[in-house]
């Protein structure tokens, strides 16, 4: 990159050669040396970012799972971390049919299903250190944990909440020590409920009681929870009250634990961490807004807001690249770049680059889904993307791949009535809830 930048600088000087002839050598060196340095550094930086953007735009379908007999929305996706080098990864998918489906990560071959669960399941997560343990929150007020090595359909661990709890979000800390779930509002109460997750496979079918709750920081449904990728004591929560709260759960009480409160001015639909050492927090909203904050600026005089876009649909895509909704964010750690993933009701997937100066369309993935995309999971290991949608299809995208399956794609879009608690994508700002 440095060499490329230097050559580019030489090219600039060649272009200015007629002017250079009128200037003595000393003045030339003095005036243009800073220019050479600036151009060299900038060219290298842009080339690195452009390579990542080109790679994302070049994603192609590598695999397509065989659709189930009963079409269902694929609402959340997670992949396991292989326990040993060369061993197979697993994919877990949370479905609107109140079931969890497991697939082989590379072939997308269906392996098994945990079905017939009482209450709607919300989210799916593998344990970070054990590739056989998978979690999901339930509207019945429990978080269930299954061991995929077991032949039984029964969970090996149940984390029970309080009688009135209806869980609609959850996450597991990067150390696998803590499970946290967020509740719907019940009368005047909304809770973040915490459990000790140690020993989850030691006592089959055991039920664990909560360690405690946070109850004062949100006043409406807690729609999303996300633990920090490398700091197990940090967790961020988002709510329909518009607030995005960052907590340090090592503190003794909720007041001390609350590090920061950010306002998205709308209802939070997704959130995550980004930036160097993951010191930034971002969220998307149900009316397709986007907010981005820098927690590293909390103790400075600098503003923490990096970017706030009220409606991404109006600021990113031209008419021929219509954007109907956002799914969530993707932080590309190697490039140090945050991207958003959105799409259209016909199944096109838009990749959007985030910068403090605004958002820009990187590329569009076509020919995969035939309906709204509800979920995705990015794999930094092989730079691949898993996507799931309302057409009941699970797709694996890889750079420059050629699809191996010859199965003809069919439209499997199903009636929204099968899903009572799925996200609704508003098409008008008039419906924004402040």
TrEMBL record:
WD repeats: 215-257, 366-398
Keyword presence, Repeat: yes
InterPro entries associated with the record: WD40/YVTN_repeat-like_dom_sf, WD40_repeat_dom_sf, WD40_rpt, WDR89
Pfam families listed in its UniProt record: WD40 (PF00400)
Gene3D superfamilies: YVTN repeat-like/Quinoprotein amine dehydrogenase
Keyword vocabulary terms for this entry: Membrane, Repeat, Transmembrane, Transmembrane helix, WD repeat
Top-level taxon of the source organism: Eukaryota
Transmembrane segments: 6-23
The name this protein goes by in its record: WD repeat-containing protein 89
Species name: Certhia brachydactyla (short-toed tree-creeper)
Source species taxonomy: Eukaryota, Metazoa, Chordata, Craniata, Vertebrata
